[in-house]
From TrEMBL:
Transmembrane segments: none
Ion transport as UniProt keyword: no
Pyrroline-5-carboxylate reductase catalytic N-terminal domain segment(s): 22-74
Keyword annotations: Oxidoreductase
Pfam families: F420_oxidored
Listed Gene3D superfamilies: NAD(P)-binding Rossmann-like Domain
Protein name: Pyrroline-5-carboxylate reductase catalytic N-terminal domain-containing protein
Cross-referenced InterPro entries: NAD(P)-bd_dom_sf (IPR036291), P5C_Rdtase_cat_N (IPR028939), STEAP_metalloreductase (IPR051267)
Length: 191
């Protein structure tokens, strides 16, 4: 059993937390009004990308030695037509620069909340979570903590793959926002 701290209790935070709980972990949600003294073993940043800088600034010391899960898709929410990170980087890479003593994993950003809650994409295909991190052991710990949740996992490689995962998440969100795919659907992976 792992102790999980989740920033945000919206649709994504609740769905991710539910999977950790289903796998037998202890989950604590952190909202704007939560006094924070310590984090669990795994910290999930389930907030919009613009909110992450404030969280890192306010709690920087508490992240040391933790596994930090970045689920964000750094969209330009004004134009909905681009990502707001440098073209040779990613939100996860920018977070990793700010938290050199933590193990950052990009995960869950290519999944919609409904697919995480139901464990199905479009009601039919198993939900697969893609992971990218430079810390192989941290990825293994994350997968172990979610064993029994009903989710499948694929290691997408090093943290530099987060750029492609974020582009994939951006495309999926753009398609759903334009009603070209359903928010209960998205990308399914068969393996």
């Amino acid at each position: 059993m792992a102790e999980i701290s989740i920033f945000g209790k919206g649709n994504m935070g609740s769905a991710i937390g539910g999977n950790f709980e289903a796998a037998g972990n202890q989950v604590t949600y952190i909202t704007k009004d939560t006094a924070v003294e310590k984090f669990g073993d795994i910290v999930v940043l389930s907030v919009p990308y613009p909110a992450i800088a404030g969280i890192l600034a306010a709690h920087r010391d508490l992240f040391a030695g933790k596994i930090v899960i970045d689920i964000s898709n750094p969209l330009n929410f004004e134009t909905f037509d681009s990502l707001v990170v440098p073209t040779d980087s990613s939100a996860a890479a920018e977070i990793a620069k700010e938290l050199p003593d933590a193990s950052v994993i990009k995960a869950f950003n290519t999944n919609f909340a409904t697919t995480l809650a139901t464990k199905k994409v479009a009601g039919a295909h198993p939900t697969t979570v893609l992971l990218a991190s430079d810390d192989k052991e941290a990825k293994e710990k994350l997968v172990d903590a979610l064993e029994g949740s009903g989710l499948a996992f694929i290691d997408a490689g090093l943290l530099k793959r987060a750029r492609e995962l974020e582009a994939m998440g951006f495309l999926q969100i753009s398609l759903a926002a334009a009603d070209k795919i359903s928010w209960t659907g998205g990308f399914g992976i068969f393996h």
